[in-house]
Amino acid sequence: MIKRLIAFVLFFLAAGASPAVSTWAHAAGKASLHDMAGQMLLVGFRGMDVTPESPIIRDIMQFNVGGVILFDYDVALKSKGRNIRDRAQVKALTDSLQQAARMPLFIAIDQEGGRVARLKPEYGFASTPSAAVLGNGTVDETRKAGETVGRMLADVGVNWDYAPVLDVNVNPECPVIGKLGRSFSSDPDVVAKHGAAFAEGLNRYGVIACLKHFPGHGSATADSHLGVTDITATWSLKELAPFRTVLEQGPRSGLRTAVMTGHLFNARLDAEYPATLSRSTITGLLREQLRYDGLVITDDMQMKAIADVYGLKEAVERAINAGADMLLFGNNISYDPDIVPKATRIIMKLVESKRISRQRVERSYQRIQALKAGIRKRDGQK
Question: Which is deepest, 2, 186, 206, 324, by most CB within 10 Å?
Fold first, then answer.
């Protein structure tokens, strides 16, 4: 314990004189496989503060984890009191996490507005409308809502919002999209315009946006948190349209976004695997057909659509070979304090055995560093 405490203190002291982005965002060829593998992971954790003994501090310091995600509710424990109590506490928590990191962390959250909001009025945060409400208003109002969320997140050190949802409201009874008011509209053009505006609002305050759930969750009749979600009979090309529009607009407008895959099975896109594990969907459709070369992150790999069907090793291997750059382990549906060491070692062994190429990992590392280039590691330094 003494050694870990000394290391923790040294990291905090070093943080005051750590190099700028141009130094840490070094070429993949100079990074170790261990460091690149760690950067490909984004993980949830328990606690409203951290100590030298916290598993997440070990993950940051020893395994160079790429990012964390904050929740206000612990699903596995069925209780509140996960990571969020009030503004001051969240800011202190994010500062502590960043100070322990050699490379700036992605600090992510699901703050869509409406029913999907981790920072709630009961914790002292402003409420914001759902996508369904915003979609019935003007694009400018949606942009301002994005700015409100972006300012709120930036103030407490959160730099990545898993929003906007670009799912088209094909099925208003979809249990996780339509029924929760998470879609802007049943019209793909309205979804694209409002989604882009919300992303612009987030970006204004330095918060990265995340377009989800590729290739479209709005027609689903089931919840991928609970099991395999088959959209073969319900999905159509119009669900792809908002992604195409916003991704084409991104480079021209300077949008800073990533794309999140959904755990959605569509036999017309891949007869064997859901989108998160599908090379034909991520590499073939998203990267080659839509010409998107930015960062792709998976939805939570511990959701039952993945965890109950595939082992950890197979899921990690297939997601990376499919083209995913970061793997999200929310550590909330189920909790494993050692998920980062396990997943890091799996990635390294897969590369060493040539089941995943080092070049595939290097390309993901480059995308991660490119998206991180604007993150403020601490006040006054980028």
Answer: 324
